[in-house]
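Why do we care about 3D structure at all? Because function follows from shape, and shape follows, mostly, from sequence. That is the central idea of this module. The next example makes it concrete: a single protein chain, its amino acid sequence, and then its structure expressed as tokens.
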Amino acid sequence: MRNHLATDLNLDTLAAWGGLSKFAFVRKYQSLSGHTPMRDLRLMRLDHARTLLLTTALPIKAVAEAAHLGNESQFSKLFHHYQGMRPGELRRSPASGRFQPSEPV
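And the structure:
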């Protein structure tokens, strides 16, 4: 899955790759990993988006599109849910390497 994040992956495609029905694929995947394939795909896409936010100057809308995480608003809500901050907040944080203190240090 990780090698195909730039494509429009869905459960039908993943099941077809495994040569299984959607139901059988989800059951098998979940028994092996403890998670659903769509949950893991979402987390991989969020990780990819986080990398793009920290390493590129792409607009947030472009990051959302590149990571296949919906529009800017959907992406921002999902990112906040899993990361605890909005995409723009991550870019302004000290961890991003782009942080500029508001007052001289």
